[in-house]
Structures are given as C-alpha cells and as structure tokens.
Specification:
This protein has about 300 residues and is an all-alpha fold. It is built from twelve helices and no strands. It has one domain: MetI-like fold (Orthogonal Bundle). Helix 5 crosses helix 7 (about 160-180) and helix 6 packs across helix 7.
Length: about 300
C-alpha cells in the first residue's frame, strides 16, 4: 500500500471560547468575606460555650417544666447558688486546692516514671518487652481497685492517693509515648544519625518532636484517668478519715442529703476538667503540633 493510499486523520480545530465577563469563567470562591456572626461562630470557645449553654437550658427547663423534686434533681440555678455560696464562704476553696495539689504530685510522679520506662524501652529490647507486658497487665486494671492495697501499704493519707494516681497516669502515658516513638519514620531517624545523635539527645531532638501528638494524647488520657480516680478515691478517704478534697465535699453533701451540694461539687470537677483540657492542653497543641503542621 502506497503512502498516498493511507488515510491521514484530519486535524479538528475547535472553536475558541472567550469569556467576555469574568463571572462566566468563575469556578469557585477563593475567599469569601464572612459576616460578623460567622466570625464569632468560628471561634472555638464560642461553639463550646454554646453547647454548654444548651445543656444548661435543657436542664433548667426539665426541672422547672416538669416540677421535679429538688431533693432528687435540683434546678441548675439552685445548684449554682450553692456553689457560689460555698466558694464565697471559704468552705470549698481549701478542698479544691487539696485535690489539685494531690493531683499535681501524682500526675508529675507518673510522668517521670513513664519517661524513665520509655527511655529504657528505646535503648533496650528488654525494656520494650517490659512496657508491652506491663501495660497489657496493668493498663486494664482500674486504679480504684488498687485503693485497698494502697490503704494497707501507705495508710490513710496523701501517699495512698498518690499511689493510685501514679497507677492511673503511668501506663497510659508510657504506652502512647512508646507507640509514638515506634511510629517515627525511618527518614527522621536517619537524619538524627547523620547528625551523630545518640541516646538522650536523639530522643529529645528527634523522637519527642515527631511523636508529640501521641505523647499529648497519652498525657490527656492519663490526666482524665487520674482526675476521676482522685475524686473516687477521696470519697473513700473522706468516709474513713473525715478529710479530703472535692470527693469528700461530694460525699459530705450526699450524707447531709444536700443534693444541690453534690451537683455543686460535680460542677467544680467538670469545670476544672474543662479548664485543663481547653486551656492547658489546647494551648500546648496550638504552640506545637498545630503550628508544626502535624495535625489537621
């Protein structure tokens, strides 16, 4: 077959399309000016405050609208009045400080022990096996179940509370930190090796920044475990020795059939938890993992 017999495809030339007006070529909004209401709603604290306010409105409406017995379920306003009265009278602040002080001691001790165990696990296969085995054994064990042993070993006092708090914090922080270290990419590890980093400098400059999201997650879980364990333990210690913190305040109110006092104590427990979560941990995340682009 000659070249002339072959069919040469014809080049199709499409008609040009010209957008006379820019709106015809518009494919999407790159930036839209938000209204004042939308700007306010985009604030994280405003949205969370709206959720809390909604729960308060539902609570107040339920107790008032259905005429619920105050002894069983007091109104929000009645419980809030009790909280403010005990704060102003000086009855509640010492108990709040007692709980926070014990929590700081136990949480700090648990963090230090967890750091030592993770360093051992990073440097040794035996340490890694120990953390894996110990967390499988003790992490599912409720810290409050260790309270009878703590009372037997350390007596009725702060030492027993610190012991159960360390148990609450230690395994959650150690497990999350160790898992975060193991998930650090090999590329980052090789960068540290190129800079001749070994031992503690390698952990501090390479592993900790890379695994910080996991570490913070473990710290928040440990904090939540420790806080609720402390309140539960103080209920028992309060009944035994007549002293304690917020847990004792709640127990004392229940024994005096002051339901509004029980809710006032629960308010403080919730309020402290919200402050720690949204002020302390939130600011740490904003200044580290969010700024570094490690979370979206």
């Amino acid at each position: 077959m000659s070249t002339s017999d072959k069919k040469i495809p014809q080049l199709v030339i499409r008609d040009e399309f010209i957008a006379d007006e820019i709106k015809d070529a518009h494919t999407g909004d790159v930036a839209v000016e938000l209204s004042t209401l939308e700007k306010i709603w985009n604030i994280n604290g405003v949205r969370k405050a709206s959720i809390l306010l909604g729960l308060v409105v539902i609570w107040q409406a339920y107790t008032v609208g259905f005429d619920v017995e105050p002894l069983m379920f007091p109104t929000f306003s009645f419980s809030l009045e009790k909280l403010i009265a005990d704060l102003l009278s000086g009855n509640l602040p010492p108990k709040i400080w007692f709980s926070i002080k014990v929590l700081i001691i136990g949480y700090s001790a648990g963090m230090v022990i967890a750091a030592v165990l993770v360093l051992w696990a990073t440097a040794s296969r035996l340490g890694s096996d120990f953390i894996a085995t110990a967390t499988a054994m003790f992490n599912p064990l409720p810290a409050i179940a260790m309270l009878p042993l703590a009372m037997l070993w350390f007596g009725l006092g702060t030492a027993s509370l610190v012991f159960v708090l360390v148990h609450s914090v230690l395994w959650a922080v150690a497990l999350n930190t160790h898992t975060g270290f193991r998930n650090v990419s090999q590329t980052l590890r090789m960068i540290g090796q190129n800079y001749a980093l070994t031992g503690v400098p390698f952990v501090v400059k390479i592993l900790v920044p890379a695994a910080l999201p996991s570490i913070l997650a473990g710290m928040k879980v440990g904090w939540a475990f420790a806080w609720r364990t402390l309140i539960g333990a103080e209920l028992v210690f309060g009944a035994s020795s007549g002293s304690g913190g917020l847990g004792w305040y709640i127990f004392e109110s229940s024994q005096n059939i002051e339901t509004e006092g029980v809710f006032a104590g629960l308010f403080m427990v919730i309020l402290i938890g919200i402050v720690v979560e949204n002020v302390v941990f939130r600011n740490i995340e904003l200044k580290t993992v969010n700024r570094w682009g490690m979370q979206r």
